[in-house]
Here is the input.
Amino acid sequence: MALTEFELIARYFAAQSLAFKRSCVALGQGDDGALLQVPDSRQLVLSVDTLNASIHFPEKADAFLLGQRCLLVNLSDLAAMGAEPVAFTLALSLPEVDTDWLEKFSRGLAAVAGQFNCPLIGGDTTRGPLSITIQAHGLVETGQAILRSGARPGDDIYVTGTLGDAAVALWQLQGDSRLQSSPLSEADLACLQRAFYQPDVRVELGRRLAGIASAGLDISDGLASDLRHILKASAGAAPSNGTDGEHRTELGAVLNADAIPLSDVFTRLVPAEDQLLLALTGGDDYELCICASPQHKRALLGLANQLEVSLTLVGQIVQSPGLKIRLKDGQSVELTEHGYQHFS
Ligand SMILES: Nc1ncnc2c1ncn2[C@@H]1O[C@H](COP(=O)(O)OP(=O)(O)O)[C@@H](O)[C@H]1O
Ligand SMILES: Cc1ncc(C[n+]2csc(CCOP(=O)(O)OP(=O)(O)O)c2C)c(N)n1
Ligand SMILES: [Mg+2]
Here is the structure.
């Protein structure tokens, strides 16, 4: 007999591996709401993201890997805010009860939940097209969250890890003819799968950026798109010389093409002429983009080194609006391309 809604929740989502206790969680699953105890000196950070089948992941994705990816991409938003993950909720829409899928999916979630000591404290389970929504809850010292709005002209721009690997993984999953080598070696396939399903979310680095980073976010749509969010959010209010009060002074950024960090797999599998654009617009990176005053360069690189996170200086925030790329020959060109956008 098929499981009922409540049997399914009890078996796969209320298990100890997901619904474990931790401080700050005063009440977990089972009531109409969960209760979080927020210490006086800290603020609660909330972030929610949905992953829909065939939009965010292939319909036939391995359920264990998908469980990992769903939680990791949400924890990446907490990392970008500089927060410590505390707990998450899960709203799951399933076309049918597939116990094999549920077993694997819940094990994938539990692997990440355990790794980050971040229990599942509630959710909702419904019938419908496969869709997974996770709300991640984190804590940050009051006033210390890393916002998109703090970048200033002269700040350095850094990114963690390498860009574009998950986009290449999608090329592989979708059989894109631009992929340079096919079939791929086991090692290359494993690398791509890891980039797409198990991104190295930068929670520890994010938590240590208070007082160092002026602004930051995680790269989900592609650096070209996400950096523009920082530029927009950080546009300062300047006194206007006209009659209309204040206007927002836009900021710009210059990225050095040569500095964009690319993995070995990426450079071997992507044609040279496609590399820069794919790395900047492919998306699904879940790396951090961090802005910081040059005075913090040593501290920031030292911290990354200590945490064994690769961190690359890729450009600067500038006064003049627009996103420019400085090419090998020293010439700067305006980048007009954006990253991933739903509905476009
Ligand atoms: N339907 C919505 N209602 C209210 N706020 C939204 C909605 N969709 C997105 N946002 C807000 O818009 C901002 C940008 O969203 P998004 O690009 O999804 O951010 P992220 O890449 O961090 O997930 C976020 O602050 C998010 O909370
Ligand atoms: C099957 C499949 N096709 C295409 C993509 C590429 N893709 C889909 S959504 C997205 C951007 C990130 O998703 P979004 O919902 O915008 O996340 P957010 O920015 O809110 O974190 C990308 C790169 C994918 N991940 N999976
Ligand atoms: Mg979002």
Summary: The longest strand covers residues 42-52. The two ends are 43 Å apart (CA to CA). The chain has a mean pLDDT of 95. Residues 5-141 form a domain with the 60s Ribosomal Protein L30; Chain: A; fold (CATH 3.30.1330.10).
